[in-house]
Amino acid sequence: MKELLELFLAFARIGGLTFGGGYSMLPMLQREVVEKKGWATEAELMDYFAVGQCLPGVIAVNTAVFIGNKVKGLAGAVAASLGVISPSIIIILAIASLIQNFSDLPIVQYAFSGIRVGVCVLIFTSVLKLFKKAIIDKFTLILFSAVLILSVFTDISPVLFVVIAAFLGIIASLLKGGLKK
Amino acid sequence: MIYLNLFWEFLKVGLFTVGGGLASLPFLYDISDKTGWFSHAQLADMIAVSESTPGPIGINMATYVGFSTAGIFGSIAATIGFIIPSIIIVSIVSKFLKKFNENKFVKGAFYGLRAVSVALICSALFSVVKISLIDIPLFEQTGVFFDLINIPGIILAVICFFVLKKYNPHPIVILGASAAAGIIFGFLGIM
User: Fold this and answer.
1) If you write DSSP's letter for every residue of A45-114 in order, what string do you get?
2) Smallest Cα–Cα separation from B151: which of B100, B191, B101, B114?
3) Nearest 10 degrees: CA dihedral of A80, A81, A87, A91?
4) What three-state secondary structure class fits B134?
5) How far apart are CA B123 and CA A179, in angstroms?
6) For residues A20 and B51, is the Cβ–Cβ distance under 8 A?
7) Which residues of B touch A10 (CB under 8 A)?
8) Is the CB of residue B15 less than 8 Å away from at least one CB of chain A?
9) Across the interface, do B97 and A144 touch by the CB < 8 Å criterion?
């Protein structure tokens, strides 16, 4: 029970402090889930992000379900996902019923022009940490560069990248295993 | 029964949205056309609010649409409906992963997946940089190089980066401080 409550609260913090899409929650996840609670390693977090991308639903909830499941099974998954959505419900309800034209207010726009800068820096430092763990040889470096270039300059769906990368990963690791023998 | 309808419609959105909250937009337009619960213009406002409040955008959208259609219980019905497919599908996949964790095919797949995961995060970073640190439309208009870069933004970013490296504060400290800096810069008219 205590663990379920901890999952709920940790993910409520993550949900309430995430601005923008699922990727901006990465720095918060690293801090809360990996560094503070030790519920998952950084490598596992990357796996969940990659797989969560290709499954239905939003990345934030999918990652919450993965980690909840790992810590406490289905009950943990439910606790974590309820945690991640509850700040949204409270904040949106407050804004929708109290403030008209919330996003047109100058103070909100100014705050967000600052927050976006903060989000850039946070994601950048997360990328630095993850890069060292994921890009470990020539194969992963080539894969990383190719996908980065394609996803910045084309509209190809991330799902396709993930599926192809999984396939290439299997082939490359089998070949490597074969070469060693 | 409006609550049940909301629950069911958003369950379908949750099931067919793959890859982030904004991917749910086409489905929301579809709901608007089909049910008349909200207009396209209202939807545009809801997107703006969902993007400028904390929380994943997809969840914020479900909450907002549910609320404007049928009040508090509507918002809860829509949001729960939206996340149920995730809970079921991801739980099944997660069992599978646990079981085949040591399998060489699964290991090989993740060897490739991790690299792609980082690349996709990097590309998300570029899209945030594009709307926060550089100003392409202004640059195209004036052609002046200094109009391309948001200088106060870059200074703020560099300060945030060094504070993070040196003191490793909780991310919310960085977000709070950069929101305050944005408000101050905004009212001074420099950002």
Assistant:
1) HHHHHHHHHHSBB-HHHHHHHHHHHHHHHHHHHHHHHHHHHHHHHHHHHHHHHH-TTGGG-HHHHHHHHH
2) B191
3) 180
4) strand
5) 33
6) yes
7) none
8) yes
9) no
Given phi > 0 = left and psi -120 to 50 = alpha, else beta, which region is B71? left
Residue A103 Cα distances to A8, A63, A100, B44, B153, angstroms? 29, 28, 9, 11, 20
- B108 and A CB contact within 8 Å: yes
- Rounded CA gap, B123 and A152, in Å? 6
Residue that the structure tokens 């709920």 belong to: A8
DSSP sequence for B59-83: HHHHHHHHHHHHHHHHHHHHHHHHH
Q: How far apart are CA A24 and CA A19, in angstroms?
A: 6
pLDDT confidence of residue B20: 62
The encoded tokens of residue A49 equal 């992000």
* Residues B115/A135, Cβ–Cβ less than 8 Å: yes
Q: What SS3 class is residue B27?
A: helix
Nearest partner of B56 among A33, A12, A84, judged by Cα: A84
Across the interface, do A31 and B72 touch by the CB < 8 Å criterion? no
Q: How is chain A split into domains, by residue range?
A: 2-133, 135-181
pLDDT band at B180 (very low <50, low <70, confident <90, very high): very high
**pLDDT tens track, chain A, 181 positions:** 899 999 999 999 999 888 766 778 888 899 999 999 999 998 888 889 888 877 888 888 999 999 999 999 999 999 999 999 999 999 988 888 777 677 778 888 888 888 889 888 988 988 888 888 889 999 999 999 999 999 888 888 777 888 899 899 999 998 887 654 4
Cα gap A86→B92, rounded to integer Å: 24
For residue B183, the Cα-to-chain-centroid distance in whole angstroms is: 22
State ipTM: 0.80
Q: Report DSSP state, residue B18.
A: B
SS3 at position B108: helix
Copy the structure tokens of residue A94.
């407050």
Name the residue among A16, A102, A169 with its Cβ closest to that of B109: A169
Check if the beta carbon of residue B40 is closer than 8 Å to that of residue B32.
yes
